[in-house]
């Protein structure tokens, strides 16, 4: 099973492999749709109005930082601001 294979990797290799997979998937149109749905459901895009939603929002931020880099949230914000300026 894939989860067993990932679990057998040393932590640094496991993180690198997952980060590579996140980047490859995010580079595709289907991947962008999937990530949009995931982050919407984790209340990264929608307002987190309850403590449970805030936990999910924090998890979304953790995923971004862990697999897209420490500055991922700032890059998302910059992209949004740039898009706003262009419209």
Give an overview of the whole structure.
The chain has 5 helices and no strands. It has 87 residues and is mainly α. It has one domain. 5% of the residues are buried. The mean pLDDT is 89.
Task: State the gist of this model.
The chain is mainly alpha-helical. It is built from five helices and no strands. The chain has one domain (about 1-85).
Oligomer: single chain
Total number of beta strands: 0
Largest sheet: none
How much strand content do the residues show? Answer: under 5%
Instruction: Based on Cα principal axes, name the global outline.
Output: globular
Distance between the termini: 46 Å
Helix/strand-derived category reads: mainly alpha
Number of helices: 5
Total discrete domains: 1
| Radius of gyration computed on alpha carbons | 15 Å
Provide the residue-averaged pLDDT.
Answer: 89
Encode the helix/strand succession as letters. HHHHH
Relative helix content = over 70%
Low-pLDDT residue intervals, each spanning 5 or more residues? none
């Amino acid at each position: 099973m894939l989860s067993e294979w990932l679990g057998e990797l040393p932590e640094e290799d496991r993180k690198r492999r997952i980060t590579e997979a996140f980047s490859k998937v995010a580079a595709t149109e289907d991947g962008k749709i999937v990530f949009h749905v995931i982050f919407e459901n984790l209340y990264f895009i929608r307002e987190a109005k309850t403590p449970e939603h805030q936990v999910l929002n924090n998890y979304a931020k953790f995923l971004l930082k862990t697999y897209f880099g420490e500055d991922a949230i700032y890059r998302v914000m910059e992209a949004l601001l740039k898009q706003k300026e262009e419209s």
